[in-house]
Amino acid sequence: MPMVTHIVSAAMIAAVMAGAAPAAAQEARPVAITVDAGRTTGALPPVWRFFGADEPNYATMKDGRKLLLSLGKLRKGDVYFRAHNLLNTGDGTPAFKWGSTNVYTETKGGKPVYDWTVVDRIIDTYLARGVRPYLQIGFMPEAMSTAPSGTPYQHGWRPGFDYNAIISGWAYPPKSYDKWRELVYQWTRHNVERYGRAEVERWYFEVWNEANGAYWEAPPEEFYKLHDYAVDGVRRALPTARVGGPDSAGAGGAFMDGFLHHVTSGTNHATGKTGTPTDFLAFHAKGQPSFVDGHVRMGIATHLKEVDRGFVKVTAIPALATKPVVIGESDPEGCAACPGPENAYRNGTMYSSYTAASFARIWELAARRRVNLEGVLSWSFEFENQPWFAGYRQLATNGVALPVLNVFRLFAQLGTERLAAESDAQVPLDMAMTQGVRGAPDVGTIATRTGDGRIAVLVWHYHDDDVAGPPAAIRLSLRGLKGAAPASATLWRVDGDHANAYAAWKAMGAPQSPNQAQYAQLEAASEMRSEMLSIATGGGVATTTLSLPRQGVALVVLGTR
């Protein structure tokens, strides 16, 4: 897409966001939140530590390396990254919804030629920054593709084009399944030799992406065969590798039913045995924002209903019911690189507050369905060398964090022991699933105890409609504290005035070429800074108050490290 089009898109998004300027001040809504630190209600697995992107080569570029470092710091060695296009043929030059590594070519006589140079550089970059691969085995190398003659191999898709324009020669089955299996075997063996068995055992291996959707130009049974041969190649090189899938579009429908049946009781295409090794299951879930009455309206209900359908489906077969589950893409909508007024939520606090509210409900759904939820992967990274705040679904722009990234930094401070907590303004799960948050705003909470004994309380103020509204006047009460309550607590905020580079950029006139001083100001504006809250005690209860604006997210931490 020409640069001028990107700039117009960014300006349009800024105008839309400006249209949601605060109306006349309204009286704050009183909200009571109560936490019982003496009552544990279960585990809160750190499912937020998974990320991904279509464009694998961005990882090795300047802003990609910087962002990976930030992600790795969230939970060092326990953050995972999934990328499309890791086996594509090409010179490694990234483009929208494209990437390549040139790992596989053939001689004129049809003999395989393996070259791990580019893909090694990508994985090296992950590991050096505390991030591990959620290794997607795909897509089809050009020399192996059965695409009809005349089919282009690399697509020419641009933002604004029809989405199906991404489908080209990479989306077809292999000419030889034996060569496909051998490629996967050789790649896995190389990874074990380069990184060590213990390291590669910690990775996730899955085959392809959304083979029930646009990404696969063959019947489902052909994908099951592709999957079997790939898993056999991985396990032949590393019998203890963690393998799973299929990362279906949505809950997967009949495609997922067929896959689950195949891996449990079908005949394995590669080995002739019954079933296919399956260590985890993966599906995708997306929301559906729209543009109504001059503002963005989010579709959290659509997102949550798809999560629930996926949970029901992957636990329906007893042999798989306790397997770890990863929602391999979980986002407000489906295309990170696609523009449009309905996607104008991405730069500011609409995205960050949606993230807090949606993750909270996904945790709750997993507990309700007794799902062994291991990961919820946000398909959002960065788009290198694009205009500032261009409106793509990403975590940072030109190396500067967006508010949504700071919500993941808040998540990283939560413990894994969940405490009893309730808010009298939290929208019930079933209502959020069926109606979304269209009436009163959702002011909700999650409370945890960290491994070092601190109490961390997350609070969010969310509404589906990106319009102004009064703040929440929150009274936070904590019971069951061990020993004397501290005199103060640490408060972290992500809202219109805190940890928000987008607001700072608009305030400085939305420059498309910030100078060094302006860049430093934007970086400073993106950073989270703590403040102190006074704690009052009496009658065995510790209380504090805070004002949380619409679309705000906050974390209150009691105790010291």
From TrEMBL:
Hydrolase listed as a keyword: yes
Chain ranges of the Glycosyl hydrolases family 39 N-terminal catalytic domain: 32-532
Signal peptide: 1-25
UniProtKB keywords: Glycosidase, Hydrolase, Signal
Residues at the catalytic site: E210
Enzyme Commission number(s) from the entry: 3.2.1.37
GO biological-process terms attached to the record: carbohydrate metabolic process
Pfam family, one: Glyco_hydro_39
InterPro entries documented for this protein: GH, GH39_cat, Glyco_hydro_39, Glycosyl_Hydrolase_39
Keyword Signal: yes
Molecular function per GO: xylan 1,4-beta-xylosidase activity
Family statement drawn from the similarity comment of this UniProt entry: Belongs to the glycosyl hydrolase 39 family.
Name of the protein in its database record: Xylan 1,4-beta-xylosidase
Organism: Sphingomonas pseudosanguinis
